[in-house]
Amino acid sequence: MSNAHTPTDDSSFNDALAALIEEAYHNGTDVEGAWKCTIDGNGDFHWDVQISRVAYED
Global pTM? Predict the structure, then answer.
């Protein structure tokens, strides 16, 4: 699957993930924790994604 929002490199993947997390968070979704993701297709791909809030010093 490909469209204008499909990440094609590390930077665009990070941007898309950050936008998804931010939108979900602002809509009341508790995004922290572990997420299981399965992509159906030619052999199923299974991923575990861990999201945790961190504080960075400038």
Answer: 0.73
CA distance 51 to 37: 13
pLDDT one-digit tens code per residue, 14-44: 999 999 999 999 999 999 999 998 888 766 7
Contact of 31 with 51, CB cutoff 8 Å: yes
Token pair in block for residue 43: 């052999």
Total domains present in the chain: 1
d(CA 35, CA 49): 5
Range of the domain at 45: 31-58
On whether residue 8 sits in a domain, the answer given is: no
